[in-house]
Amino acid sequence: MKKSLLIIATIFTMGAVMTGCAKESEEEANVTITPADETDDIAKSDEPMAPPSFDDVDLSKIVTLGKYKGMELEKVISATTTEAIEAQVTSDLINAPVEDEDGVVDNGDTANIDFEGKLDGVPFEGGAGQGHNLEIGSGGFIPGFEEALIGAKKGDTLDIDVTFPNDYPQSKELEGKPAVFTVTINDITKILEEPTDEWVTANTDYKTVDEYKKAIEDDITEYNNEVADREIGNTAFTKLVEESEIIEYPEDALAYGGEVYKQSAQEYADASGMTLEEFLSAQGMTTEQFEEETKKIAEDVAKQMLVMNAVVQAEGFKEGNAKYDELLAEIEEESETPKEQLYEQYGEENIKQSIRMKYVKDVIVENAKITEVEAPAEPEVELPEGHSADDGHDH
């Protein structure tokens, strides 16, 4: 399983997530903040915004920390289900089709073909191809083409009479015209419904189906544990922030938090092709409401930042410590990027803050009283009448 990257360009990520529906003017926009989440994607910007440093500030005078050692936490682990294992097996089978033993094209097979189309005996532009993989029944070619290949054998060459649809989108010149395609079947493959020992040996590092499925089960279990470890760290830090008190907010901390939020909102606006004012209006939010929300979010971000750094100071954690170097090495390994490049891309201070956040979460979790619990099963979605879970389309 691929490990998540633990770097984020701005350690206190702003989920400036606004709903796509208009709101009544008196309602607040739905804006959420995610505390230092560890994600698979790294938010990049041309000029990474660096958080302020509190190395020279005695944070014990302005931050009253909650109890960060001896917390009682639940580690919620998703079960490794048969459905998850079979879903991975199905995906693997799709990605590794086998040669059709009977050598006859059937619906659902993939035929590797060479083809050339002609109008009145003359080849036309775009009507030829070599080594094309065509799934029979996929509707990838014009009506009648795929059906005409059913029953053909590997090595066969046949002429297929078809007529282009009247609304053929690729070419107005071909609409409604009859054509003849000369097709050669190079190879025929199919997707197995179930893996066999032979398929496992040919396509995996294992010899039997049982070994293969056990490996998938172990991988999913390991992944679920990694997710649970990340989530318990996030939960623990969120709890600490909630139970801590800020006596006085430094102005640079508030300014940073507000700027992060505004930058995030501007990025959403840019992605939508709007000005910030247009984007806010589309979210049912006035400029005044946005400014008020910015103040609240700024305080939330500042509190996270101050609490994190207060723990760092209380524990005497700093650059040059063995633990610091260990966490930096982890980040380099997980991102497959040397520290010099990380500093250049995301700003050295942002990398330092990422290391501190990892450290703080580790301290809390390592000193917590943890109870492992199984994640509740996801509720089955009740479908409207006339639909089924496996039809894949509306009736």
Features:
elongated, single chain, 395 residues, two-stranded antiparallel sheet, disordered N terminus, 40% helix, 10 helices, five-stranded antiparallel beta sheet, Trigger factor, domain 2, Chitinase A, domain 3, alpha+beta
Indicate the mean pLDDT: 84
Number of beta-strand segments:
9
CATH architecture of the domain at 59-80 and 222-374: Orthogonal Bundle
Approximate helicity band: 40-55%
Number of helices: 10
Structural class call reads alpha+beta
**What name does CATH use for the topology of the domain at 59-80 and 222-374?**
Trigger factor, domain 2
Strand content: 15-25%
Let me know the largest β-sheet.
Answer: 5 strands, antiparallel
CATH class group of the domain at 59-80 and 222-374: Mainly Alpha
Order of helices and strands: EEHEEEHEEHHEHHHHHHE
Overview of the molecule:
With 395 residues, the protein is of the alpha+beta class. Among the domains are: 59-80 and 222-374, Orthogonal Bundle (Trigger factor, domain 2), CATH 1.10.3120; 98-190, Chitinase A, domain 3, CATH 3.10.50. Helices cover 40% and strands 16% of the residues. It has helices at residues 82-95, 145-149, 197-203, 209-243, 251-271, 276-282, 287-315, 322-335, 339-346, 348-366; strands at 63-64, 72-77, 98-99, 110-119, 122-135, 157-163, 178-190, 245-246, 369-374. Strands 3, 4, 5, 6 and 7 form a five-stranded antiparallel β-sheet that branches. It has a two-stranded antiparallel sheet with strand order 1-8. A hairpin with a 2-residue loop joins strand 4 (110-119) and strand 5 (122-135). Helix 4 (209-243) crosses helix 7 (287-315), helix 4 packs across helix 10 (348-366) and helix 5 crosses helix 7. It starts with 62 loop residues before the first strand and ends in a 21-residue tail after the last strand. Residues 1-11, 13-45 and 386-395 have low confidence and may be disordered.
